[in-house]
Amino acid sequence: MSKFHSDYMITMKDIVREGNEILHQPTQKVMMPPSEEDKETLTCMLNFLKNSQDPDLSNKYKLRAGVGLSANQIGLNKRMFVAYLTDERGKQHEYTLINPKIISHSVSMIYLPPSEGCLSVDRDIKGFVPRYERIKVKGFNSEGEEIVVKLKGYPSIVIQHEIDHLNGIMFYERINKESPFKLPENCKSLY
C-alpha cells in the first residue's frame, strides 16, 4: 500500500534527490488498466505540481515550483508521470501519462535558456539541453485509455524531460560535456 493516496500531500521531503539509484534506472511498465493505487498516486503527484506553483502554498510548505514529476522522483519504480505547465502563449496544459513513448519527433530542435531545472537536482547546472521542437507521444491516461498527444515548444521540452526520467536519464546528461553551451546545427532558443 502506497502512502501516496489522494489526501496525502507530497512535499520536498518526498522528492528523491540526484545520486539516488532509482533516478538512473529505467522504470517498470505499469499494468493496464491502472490500479486505484496508481490513480491515487498520479492525483497526488499532480496536486504537488499545482501546490508548488501556488505562491501561498509553496511558501507555506517550502515547495520548489515544478512543472513535471515522474513516479521515480518520489521513489516509485513505475513508468508514469504528470505535468502541469503554462506554455509560451499562456495556455495551461495538464498531462497524466502512463507508459509514454515518443512515436515521432521533428528534425528541428530547441533549448530552454539558460538551462533546465529539476526537482531532484538541488544545484545550479549551466548548459543547454537540446530537445526536439515537436513530438508525438503515445501512452495511457489515468483511466487506462490509450491516447496520442502532439506537443511543441515548451510542453514538448517538459514531456521529453519527464520521459528521460522514466528512462533513467537526467537532463544534464544531455548537455555537451566539452562545451556546455554548444548546440547541434538545427537547434534554436525557445524564447
Low-confidence stretches: none
CATH hierarchy, class: Alpha Beta
Give average pLDDT, whole number: 96
Query: How does the helix and strand content classify structurally?
Result: alpha+beta
How much strand? Answer: 15-25%
Describe the structure.
- This protein is α+β, with helices and mostly antiparallel strands.
- It is globular and about 50 Å long.
- It has a single domain (12-189), classed as Peptide deformylase (Peptide Deformylase, Alpha-Beta Complex), CATH 3.90.45.10.
- A hairpin with a 5-residue loop joins β6 (134-140) and β7 (146-152).
- A 5-stranded antiparallel β-sheet has the order 1-2-3-6-7. A 3-stranded mixed β-sheet has the order 5-4-8, with helices on one face.
- Helices cover 19% and strands 24% of the residues.
